[in-house]
Structures are given as structure tokens and as C-alpha cells.
């Protein structure tokens, strides 16, 4: 009976999932047609780009639990890589975009090799250092990068008008987001993903069970850098103007973390949801309060609240809430738990009884006097 | 490159290294006590510098005197921060989450500074701002000497506190073995709070010293946190003497490299040192045995 | 419970293994050979270096000097996962499981990966799940497979850890205090499991404080004191060895 109702609820959940997914996808894809004006549409592009970035970040953060505050380095390198390949080597826009992604992935190998040797705090420090180095290099090496004067990226579609340009990039970002999510989902359900999650839970234990943790971490770090760079390159093609201060900003890196954490790093759609909330709020703040530092304060406070009160994100917090207010489901769970407990107890006492009568077995005893 | 220039850089490097050492000591304290990486340390540094500047602008009195307010204030803020915020984090994920939490605090401080004082660059002009004295042929600005003097005196005070007071002993015991410290009756929570306050007090001193000599703006703290983080990793996380030695070495290195490379590129020495440390000796160069002795 | 007269095949052995922490010699020049196909027990007073020895052997800590070999191959200083792949499984002193994964996933994680292609396969491969369930059934917690590992009792976590170790199909299983912190009934159950698994050909190395368990379970006992073995032999002999009494009672 339990099984039957289980199957029923699973299929119900599946239907619900499909419906919600379809509705969200439809809402997303038709956004350009109901966006009130080009400004709103461009804000939509920004939010989508955030979603791509924080989902990319979540390859490392969500699976392994390593928190990188420096993913802006890969974002900036992807953006500058794309721009420089177009301007210096005359490559066509999207070839340059893809090559830049590959290049950044290659660059991430030695960086990850060094950074992943340490855990926890040191890793975060290294990740921050990475952005600061990149900022330093790209500001100082102005002959090549344009330095603080900025770098203009040739438009990929020179004939397009502004609204059309935004709309095109809205769909390009949506496609990139879809690919990124698909890749995350594939890893999530693979053995590789299970190994990564074991690293997040207890790295030593995972290693002792035969998982080559270092290689696992490195691979997923490189994948993460690749998608982050693609996000950065796409941003460069869309925005058309790069400045080291914005591209290698520690703030961009912290947005990625905040969004993923807010939505829930263990969920596929966590970072996307976080990006929708935080990205929309940021765009709103920029519109309302202009160039003040208010968005910094808001970001800081929100991050603090998330870290202190819901470190697992709003999706798990929301699910808990739903659980609590769905009497049917919770009662089934309680019953099962009680049942299991009972069964377990009776079983273990039965076994204990059997043991006592087996001559080769030790007398059950916890006396540890011999130890002292 | 002539000798006197080299010597000048060396002296400046030592003076800079002193300030780095003080600030890195604060960072090491937080890490040692609670395994907390305090990203907001340099934001508090800049906050103290702003307070000193504001104090000077409003009263016209020497900004150094603001120390009498900021040091106790920062100590109290540190204690509260530990008790109210950091202690709430789950122990399992403490290190990671504390990074994010203090990062959030840093962003908030930076934002508020920009909000209240605007993003304009500020600088204190004092009667003795332009003066310098000659030390064996090297010209050294008086303010730099004052900065170094403050840093050295504070470090010495920190050393005495850690080494000879009862509180310092409990602090060291907590750093070395928290559970054992609890067993011998040390209230590690309270000690951790005070340790946090002590760390933040170093930021107050450092910030006031910095305000004498530097142009300040809200986002300046990012320029400090990178080098400081590099210093504590190179020094071996948790080792105060290690951090001090690394601070001196890297401070001098930065100062010397400025001659051939210019100021911006010279900063890369911190990051080169950071990555080299991770490749060669992830536990840091001066940690380990030294850490246990202090 | 008696040793066979034939010379034992070499399983896991260390030669002059040493490791010190800041001047304290945790493992000091330890030369140990474990007997293949038997239940070996490693006993000794608290702080005698058993766990450090364990960690050196399984690669969690790099020894300062000395060597570790398994079946004649030198495995000194290899990373833990390579030692695990060589066929040595281990548990941890305070039972370590993956708290926010389900019981079944906890076991599935320990599958043997062969090459890149198997990595990209779905984690929920049917054969693997059946194998994992088999081990859960074996330790008696298969009814909990869908619970989060953090939610089950400590004793059940201990059994879960053992199931995970078994999933990797090791030939040699090293258990760090399998009876630590669990109730008497469960101690009996774990003892039986070890016996059964040993009868199937798996070698065991068990660090244990519960003397009754050690004496009844093991074929070969090695006594550690101050980082090195001071006596070894069948349990009955070791029990009466004056050096062992001295080490324990601190005479």
C-alpha cells in the first residue's frame, strides 16, 4: 500500500514538475514580446547572464562545496578573450567566443591545480587573489587590453537595431543557460556527480573509498571555468564595451555566490532562481538609486542574511515549509519513520538473541576495564 | 640603480612591512581562534581611516587622537560580531560560511562609506605631512615613521598580552586546542569574543596610521585584503610570528621591486608568493613549529 | 582460533614506519606484518599511535620515513584513493558517513570506477544498485535505504559505513574501533559480520579497545605501545605477555 501511494505521488510530482517547467520556460521565452520597453528587455538580458554565471559557478560550489569568490576572473577572461580574438586576430564573433571559452578552460587547469591543493579558507583566499591579479594585469597592460580606457568589442550583428539586438541576445543567453543547466543535470545524476557530492560531504572519507578526489575537483573546476567564460564572452558580445574594473570585479564573483546560495546550491534551478531574485533587485536598485553605493549595502545585507539564516537556500527552505503544511505527506512520513524504527528495534533484539546463543560469539558487554 | 635608492627602498619596505605585520597579526588571530577568514578586516581598516579623517575634519585635532575612541569601539564591535554573528554559524561549514559572512560585512561597510562620505578620494593634510628626516642618507617621511612606530608598539603590546597575561594564555590555549582549553576551565566562547575584539582593534590602529599617509576611498580595502591574505597563507595560517615574518619579507620585496617594475606590477609579488606557497608548501612557510611556540 | 602452521602469506606489511608531529613520535620505527586471510587485531593503550599508524598505512598521512607494502607492492606515500583501489578498505574512528546523502547513495558512492565512460553513466545503474542493496541487506539496514544518512542512529551509521567499505570490494578491511560507542547487541552483530566476511576470504585489521571482542574475534594480535609493536601472537599468548601488562598498567 505504501508502495502504491508512493508511486502515485511520484508520478503526480513528475506531472507537476513538467507543468511547472513548461510554464516557466514559456514565460521565459516569451519575455521579449511582453517586455514593456527596450530597457526592461536589456535588464532581462542582464538577469539571464547572471543566471548563466551563477549556474556555472554552481558546478564547483554546489557539487564540491568549494566556494570560489573569484569566478569573476573567468568571466573577465572570457569577455576579454573574445574581444581580443576578434580585434587582434580578426576572427568572427562566435568563433572567437568559443575559442575564448576553450582558452579559459585551459588556463583554469594550472590555476585549479594550485588552488585545489588546499581546502576551505585557503581556497577562498586563492580565488579572491585570482581576481585581484587579473584586475592588476588587465589594468596595467594597457597597450594590449586598452587598460582603464576600455576596449570596444565589435558587434556581431552590426545591422541590428537596439531592441532587436537585445532580443537576439536574450535568446542566445537563454540557449547558453539551457546548455549549462543540461550539463549540470547530467553531472548531477552521474557517478561522477555522486563522487563530487561525496567530496562536499566528507572529502577524506570519499578519498578513502577510492574516489580520486583531486582529479574530480579539477575536472569540475575546469568545466565551471569554461561555462563562466562562455557567459563572459557572450556578455562582451552583447554589451560591446569592456573595462577591467567591471569585468574583473570582485562584486560579480560575489553575485554568483549570493545567487546560487540564495536559491540553493544543491538544486539544479537554485542559481537560476537566485539570479531572478537578486538580478531583478539589482537592476531595480540601479534604476531607482542610480549610481549610489546602495546596491553594495543591499548585496552585503542580503548575503549576510542568507548565510546566517538559510545557508541551504530558499528552495530547501520552501520545501520544508510545504512539507509542514501538507498534513497528508508529513503523516505518511512519520508513520514510515516510526514503522522503520520499530522494525529495526525488533530485528536487532532478535539478532542479539540469536547471537547470545551462538557459542563463537562474544558475550555482549561494554565493559572496557581491560582498556585501562 | 644606485645604492642610496636601494637603501631608501629597503627602509620604506621595512616601514611598510611593519604595518602589514600588524594587520596580518589581526587576521591570524581570527583564524587561529575560530578558523574564521575575516575578509572584512581591511574594510574595518578603511573604516578606521575614514573615522580618523572625519574626526580631524570636524575637530581639527590630530587624527592620531581618534585612536582613543576607535580602538575601544572596534574592540567592542569585534566582541559583538563574534558573539552575535560568527557564533551562530554551523561548526561544520564555519570556515566557508564565515568567509561569506565577513565578505558581506565588507561589502556593507564599503557601501555605507560610499553612501555617507561619497566616493571622493580623501586625504588628511597635517602640519608634518610633508616633513621627512634623514636616516643614513635615506629620506623617510615622518608620517611613515609614525605609522611604523604605532604598528611596532601595537605588535609588541600584542606579544606581551599573548605571552604574559592570563587572558593571553587562555587565548593561546584556545588556539592550540579548543577542547583541551575547555577541559581546564577556560571559557572559550568568551575568549574567542575577546580575541575577535583584539583582532579588530589592530584594524583600528592600522587604519588610523594609514590615514596619515594615504589617500583613502571606499573600495581601497580590496587593495589591502589581497596582500594580507597572501601574507597569512605564506606565513602558515594561524601562526602570528609566521605572518609577521612573511609580512616583513613581502613588504620589503614589494618595496624593492617597485624600482624596476613600478608600483602596480610590484604588487604581484604577493600573488606570486601565494601561488608558489600553494605549489611548494601548502601548509605555509613559517607555520608548524613556530606556530606552536607563540 | 589457532594459527595455521604453514608460513603466512604476506598481506600488508610496514618496515620502520615513522611519523612525528612537532617532536612527538606518534609512530616510531614500526615494523609490522599482518597475516593474510585472518582477523588481525591492533591493540594498545590510548595514544600508542594506532590511529596514526592506520592513517599512514592508508595514505591519509604521509609517513616521515619507512615503507608500506601490500601483497609485495610498495604503496608508501600513495594517495588514499590509490591505496583503496589496491584493495584496502577502511573505516574511521568516529564513524564517518556522508550525512546529506541517502543511505543507498552512501553505499553507491563506493562503486569501482573503471575508466572515463563509466563515470558518465547514470549513478542509478541497476546492477550497482542491486549490489549496494545486497550489502545493505548484509549489514541489516536495507529498509533504511531512502533515509538521509544523518537521520539514522549512530549504530546504523556504523553499519552503513561498513556497507560502504564492502561496496568497494576490498580484500583487506581495516576497521578503526568498530565497537566504539555502540550497544552490546550491535557489538555482537558486528563481530559476527566480521567473522562471516573473514570466512569468505577477506583479511581484517581491527583496532579495538573492547578486549572481549578482540580476544574472541581475532586470530592474531599485535600490541602497540609508544608508536611501535611490542608483542604479537595469538590472543591467548598476548593476554599473558608481561610486556603487554606493563604497557597497559604502566608499571
From TrEMBL, chain A:
Give the UniProt subcellular location, in the record's own words.
Answer: Cell membrane
Q: Which UniProt keywords apply?
A: Cell membrane, Membrane, Transmembrane, Transmembrane helix
Q: Where is the composition biased (Basic and acidic residues)?
A: 340-353
Region (Disordered) residue ranges read: 340-372
Topology of the protein relative to the lipid bilayer: Multi-pass membrane protein
**Which superkingdom, per the lineage?**
Bacteria
The yes or no answer to whether the keyword Nucleotide-binding is present is no
Spell out the CDD domains in the cross-references. TM_PBP1_LivM_like
Q: Where are the transmembrane segments?
A: 14-34, 40-60, 72-89, 95-116, 123-141, 168-187, 218-239, 245-262, 269-287, 293-310
> Key word Transmembrane present in the record?
yes
Q: Which InterPro entries match?
A: ABC_transp_permease (IPR001851), LivM-like (IPR043428)
Please classify the protein's predominant subcellular localization into one broad category. Answer: membrane
Q: What is this protein called?
A: Branched-chain amino acid ABC transporter permease
Automatic annotation (TrEMBL), chain B:
* Entry membrane topology: Multi-pass membrane protein
**CDD domains per record:** TM_PBP1_LivH_like
Q: Which GO terms describe its molecular function?
A: transmembrane transporter activity
In which broad location class does this protein mainly occur, judging by the first location in its UniProt entry?
membrane
**One GO cellular component term:** plasma membrane
Q: Name one GO biological process term.
A: amino acid transport
Membrane-spanning parts = 6-29, 36-55, 61-80, 92-116, 136-162, 191-212, 224-250, 262-280
Q: What is this protein called?
A: Branched-chain amino acid ABC transporter permease
Q: Which domain of life is it from?
A: Bacteria
What organism is recorded for this protein?
Mumia zhuanghuii
What family does this chain come from, according to its entry?
Belongs to the binding-protein-dependent transport system permease family. LivHM subfamily.
Q: Where in the cell is it found?
A: Cell membrane
Q: Which UniProt keywords apply?
A: Amino-acid transport, Cell membrane, Membrane, Transmembrane, Transmembrane helix, Transport
From TrEMBL, chain C:
- Supply the alphabetized keyword list: ATP-binding, Nucleotide-binding, Transport
> Could you confirm whether the keyword Nucleotide-binding appears in this record?
yes
Q: Which CDD domains match?
A: ABC_Mj1267_LivG_branched
Q: Which GO terms describe its molecular function?
A: ATP binding; ATP hydrolysis activity
- One annotated Gene Ontology cellular component of this protein: plasma membrane
Instruction: List the SMART domains.
Output: AAA
Q: Please report the stretch or stretches of sequence annotated as the ABC transporter domain.
A: 12-251
Q: Which PANTHER family match?
A: CONSERVED COMPONENT OF ABC TRANSPORTER FOR NATURAL AMINO ACIDS, CONSERVED COMPONENT OF ABC TRANSPORTER FOR NATURAL AMINO ACIDS-RELATED
Identify this protein by name.
ABC transporter ATP-binding protein
This protein's species is Mumia zhuanghuii
Amino acid at each position: 500500500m505504501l508502495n502504491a501511494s508512493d508511486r502515485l505521488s511520484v508520478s503526480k510530482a513528475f506531472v507537476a514538475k513538467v507543468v511547472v517547467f513548461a510554464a516557466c520556460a514559456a514565460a521565459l521565452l516569451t519575455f521579449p514580446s511582453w517586455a514593456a520597453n527596450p530597457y526592461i528587455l536589456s535588464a532581462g538580458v542582464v538577469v539571464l547572464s547572471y543566471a548563466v554565471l551563477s549556474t556555472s559557478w554552481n558546478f564547483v560550489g554546489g557539487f564540491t562545496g568549494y566556494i570560489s569568490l573569484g569566478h569573476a576572473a573567468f568571466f573577465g577572461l572570457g569577455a576579454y578573450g573574445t574581444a581580443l580574438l576578434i580585434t587582434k586576430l580578426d576572427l568572427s564573433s562566435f568563433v572567437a567566443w568559443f575559442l575564448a571559452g576553450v582558452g579559459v578552460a585551459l588556463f583554469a587547469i594550472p590555476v585549479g591545480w594550485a588552488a585545489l591543493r588546499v581546502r576551505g579558507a585557503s581556497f577562498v583566499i586563492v580565488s579572491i587573489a585570482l581576481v585581484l591579479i587579473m584586475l592588476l594585469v588587465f589594468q596595467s597592460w594597457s597597450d594590449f587590453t586598452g587598460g582603464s580606457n576600455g576596449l570596444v568589442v565589435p558587434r556581431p550583428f552590426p545591422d541590428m537595431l537596439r531592441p532587436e539586438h537585445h532580443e537576439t541576445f536574450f535568446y542566445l543567453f537563454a540557449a547558453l543557460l539551457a546548455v549549462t543547466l543540461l550539463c549540470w543535470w547530467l553531472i548531477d545524476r552521474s557517478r561522477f556527480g555522486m563522487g563530487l557530492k561525496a567530496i562536499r560531504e566528507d572529502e577524506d572519507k570519499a578519498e578513502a573509498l577510492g574516489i580520486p578526489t583531486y582529479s574530480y575537483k579539477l575536472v569540475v573546476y575546469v568545466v565551471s571555468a569554461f561555462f563562466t567564460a562562455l557567459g563572459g564572452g557572450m556578455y562582451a558580445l552583447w554589451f560591446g564595451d569592456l573595462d577591467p574594473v567591471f569585468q574583473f570585479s570582485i562584486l560579480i564573483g560575489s553575485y554568483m555566490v549570493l545567487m546560487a546560495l540564495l536559491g540553493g546550491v544543491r538544486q539544479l534551478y537554485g542559481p537560476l532562481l537566485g539570479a531572478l531574485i537578486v538580478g531583478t533587485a539589482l537592476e531595480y536598485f540601479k534604476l531607482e538609486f542610480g549610481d549610489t553605493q546602495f546596491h553594495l549595502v543591499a548585496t552585503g545585507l542580503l548575503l549576510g542574511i542568507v548565510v546566517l539564516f538559510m545557508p541551504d537556500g530558499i528552495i530547501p527552505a520552501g520545501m520544508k515549509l510545504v512539507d509542514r503544511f501538507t498534513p497528508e505527506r508529513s503523516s505518511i512520513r512519520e508513520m514510515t519513520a516510526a514503522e522503520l524504527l520499530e522494525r529495526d528495534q525488533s530485528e536487532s533484539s532478535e539478532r542479539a538473541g540469536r547471537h547470545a546463543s551462538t557459542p563463537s560469539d562474544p558475550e555482549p558487554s561494554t565493559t572496557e576495564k581491560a582498556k585501562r | 640603480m644606485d645604492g642610496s635608492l636601494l637603501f631608501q627602498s629597503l627602509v620604506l619596505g621595512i616601514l611598510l612591512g611593519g604595518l602589514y605585520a600588524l594587520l596580518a597579526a589581526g587576521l591570524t588571530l581570527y583564524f587561529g581562534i575560530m578558523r574564521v577568514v575575516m575578509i572584512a578586516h581591511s574594510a574595518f581598516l578603511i573604516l578606521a581611516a575614514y573615522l580618523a579623517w572625519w574626526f580631524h575634519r570636524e575637530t581639527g585635532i590630530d587624527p592620531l587622537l581618534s585612536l582613543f575612541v576607535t580602538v575601544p569601539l572596534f574592540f567592542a564591535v569585534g566582541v559583538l560580531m563574534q558573539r552575535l554573528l560568527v557564533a551562530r554559524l554551523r561548526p561544520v561549514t564555519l570556515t566557508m560560511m564565515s568567509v561569506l559572512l565577513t565578505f558581506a560585512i565588507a561589502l556593507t561597510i564599503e557601501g555605507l562609506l560610499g553612501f555617507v562620505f561619497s566616493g571622493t578620494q580623501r586625504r588628511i593634510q597635517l602640519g608634518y605631512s610633508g616633513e621627512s628626516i634623514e636616516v643614513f642618507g635615506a629620506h623617510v617621511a615622518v608620517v611613515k615613521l609614525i605609522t611604523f612606530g604605532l604598528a611596532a608598539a601595537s605588535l609588541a603590546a600584542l606579544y606581551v598580552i599573548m605571552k604574559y597575561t592570563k587572558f593571553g594564555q587562555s587565548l593561546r590555549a584556545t588556539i592550540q586546542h579548543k577542547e583541551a582549553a575547555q577541559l581546564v576551565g577556560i571559557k572559550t566562547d568568551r575568549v574567542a569574543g575577546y580575541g575577535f575584539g583584539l583582532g579588530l582593534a589592530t584594524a583600528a590602529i592600522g587604519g588610523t596610521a594609514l590615514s596619515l599617509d594615504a589617500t583613502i576611498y571606499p573600495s581601497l580595502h580590496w587593495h589591502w585584503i589581497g596582500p594580507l591574505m597572501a601574507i597569512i597563507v605564506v606565513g602558515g595560517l594561524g601562526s602570528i610570528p609566521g605572518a609577521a615574518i612573511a609580512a616583513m619579507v613581502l613588504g620589503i620585496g614589494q618595496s624593492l621591486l617597485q624600482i624596476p617594475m613600478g608600483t602596480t606590477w610590484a604588487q604581484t609579488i604577493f600573488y606570486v608568493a601565494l601561488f608558489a606557497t600553494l605549489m611548494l608548501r601548502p601548509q605555509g612557510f613559517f607555520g608548524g613549529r613556530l606556530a606552536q611556540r607563540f | 582460533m589457532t594459527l595455521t602452521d604453514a608460513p603466512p602469506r604476506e598481506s600488508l606489511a610496514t618496515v620502520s614506519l615513522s611519523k612525528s608531529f612537532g617532536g612527538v613520535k606518534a609512530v616510531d620505527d614500526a615494523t609490522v606484518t599482518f597475516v593474510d586471510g585472518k582477523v588481525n587485531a591492533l591493540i594498545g593503550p590510548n595514544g600508542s599511535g594506532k590511529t596514526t599508524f592506520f592513517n599512514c598505512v592508508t595514505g591519509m598521512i604521509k609517513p616521515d620515513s619507512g615503507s608500506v607494502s601490500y601483497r609485495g607492492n610498495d604503496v608508501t606515500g600513495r594517495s588514499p584513493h590509490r591505496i583503496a583501489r589496491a584493495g584496502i578498505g577502511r573505516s574511521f574512528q568516529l564513524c564517518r558517513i556522508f550525512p546529506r546523502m541517502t543511505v543507498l547513495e552512501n553505499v553507491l558512492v563506493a562503486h569501482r570506477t573503471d575508466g572515463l565512460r563509466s563515470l558518465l553513466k547514470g549513478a542509478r545503474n541497476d546492477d550497482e544498485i542491486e549490489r549496494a542493496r545486497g550489502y545493505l541487506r548484509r549489514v541489516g539496514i536495507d529498509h533504511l535505504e531512502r533515509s538521509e544518512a544523518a537521520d539514522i542512529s549512530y549504530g546504523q551509521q556504523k553499519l552503513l559505513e561498513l556497507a560502504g567499505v564492502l561496496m568497494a570490494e576490498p580484500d583487506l578491511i581495516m576497521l578503526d574501533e568498530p565497537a566504539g560507542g555502540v550497544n552490546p547487541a550491535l557489538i555482537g552483530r558486528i563481530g559476527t559480520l566480521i567473522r562471516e566476511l573473514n570466512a569468505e576470504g577477506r583479511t581484517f585489521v581491527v583496532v579495538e579497545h573492547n578486549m572481549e571482542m578482540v580476544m574472541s574475534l581475532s586470530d592474531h594480535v599485535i600490541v602497540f605501545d609508544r608508536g611501535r609493536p611490542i608483542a604479537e601472537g595469538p590472543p591467548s599468548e598476548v593476554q599473558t605477555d608481561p610486556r603487554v601488562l606493563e604497557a597497559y598498567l604502566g608499571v
